[in-house]
Design brief:
Layout: H1 9-17, E1 25-30, H2 37-48, H3 52-65, E2 67-73, H4 75-86, E3 92-96
Antiparallel strand pairs: 1-2, 1-3
C-alpha cells in the first residue's frame, strides 16, 4: 500500500484559505409596494450605472417576478451597489452567483 503524502502548511494555506477572487456575486433586488416604478429605475441607474432601459428591465422583473438580479460583480462592488440601493430603503441582498 503506497504512503499518502499530506500537504505542507504552505500548500494548505494557498489552496484552502485563499479566497477565490473570481467568484461572482449577485445583488438581488426585491419588489416592494412603497416605491414608484420610476423611483426604483432611477436608483438602479444610480447604483449600477446602467442605462434607463436596462434599469427599467431589472425593475420590471423585480415587479413581476418578486425579485431580480440587479447587478453581478465582485463582492466589494456588489456591497457598494447594495448600499446605494438601500439609500431609499429598497430591499436587497448579496448572494454568491
Amino acid at each position: 500500500m503506497p504512503v499518502q503524502t499530506l500537504p505542507t502548511v504552505d500548500e494548505t494555506l494557498e489552496s484552502d484559505l485563499t479566497p477565490d477572487l473570481a467568484t461572482p456575486w449577485n445583488v438581488i433586488l426585491y419588489n416592494d409596494d412603497y416605491h414608484s416604478f420610476d423611483e426604483v429605475v432611477l436608483q438602479v441607474q444610480k447604483a449600477t450605472g446602467y442605462s434607463e432601459e436596462r434599469a427599467a428591465e431589472i425593475t420590471y422583473e423585480a415587479h413581476t417576478e418578486g425579485r431580480a438580479v440587479a447587478f453581478t460583480g465582485d463582492k466589494d462592488e456588489c456591497k457598494r451597489v447594495a448600499t446605494v440601493l438601500r439609500e431609499i430603503r429598497l430591499q436587497v441582498e448579496i448572494d454568491e452567483a
